[in-house]
Design brief:
This protein is an alpha/beta fold. It has a single domain, classed as Ribonuclease Z/Hydroxyacylglutathione hydrolase-like (Metallo-beta-lactamase, Chain A), CATH 3.60.15.10. The strands form 2 sheets. It has a 7-stranded mixed β-sheet, with helices on one face. A 7-stranded mixed β-sheet has the order 6-7-8-9-10-11-12. It is globular and about 45 Å long.
Amino acid sequence: MDWKKYVLATLVLANILVWTSVYGQGPGNLKVYFFDVGQGDAIFIDTPTHKQVLIDGGRNRKVLSELGKVMAFGDRYIDVVIETHPDADHSAGLVAVAERYRTGINLDQNSARRGQTIDFGDGAKLTILFPDRDISGWDTNDGSVVARLDYGEASFLFTGDATIKTENILLHLDKDLPAGRQVLDVDVLKAGHHGSRTSTSLTFAEVVSPEYAVISAGKDNTYGHPHKEVLKILERVGAKIISTIDSGTIEFDTDGTILRLK
């Protein structure tokens, strides 16, 4: 084989490997990543058939490097992007994401409404729990989009910067229905507002009763997050507390029965 044929064969093989990595991934487990983006939120969901969801994007371009670690090489499409609220530590990084990635469904405080459900067709389902009303004119944190993710027996609750005011609304929605408060009972809670005392009341934490509580915050942040009061509440309800401050990016993996913290 002369050198030209060798180079051509090498390029063809490399091309095959690249596109196999993008399109040839078979069904797997559900994976949820809480990216370490400093003082902010960015959560990435990869469903069993590789439908991809990004909830918030942190305050800068760091989210791009985190996405590059978990998305297939050459993949430039995210199925669903949710901006929980417009504060910079949740939304600014989404500008960089929009520059590099094409997106399918885009939701924010104005377009998200309770009851909207995205069924990915592989057992994974994302449901909007809040807002249930027009929140224009509200404090941005109070109006945070709250969503629940289910896959088999595994469940996650994403709360943005939802405050105790928002939590109280959620606690009273459908409270008289048989499954009313059960909709808040999940395995993994993303603690609201980076572990601030303005979120995660004892009543809310008791109803959610998470096995794990994730706190996304920056090391030595000026807000003092997470607050000691919140840590005590989460400890009281038996949650294992994990923070991006101590652990960096946090990954959960589940087959729908067994939930693993990786």
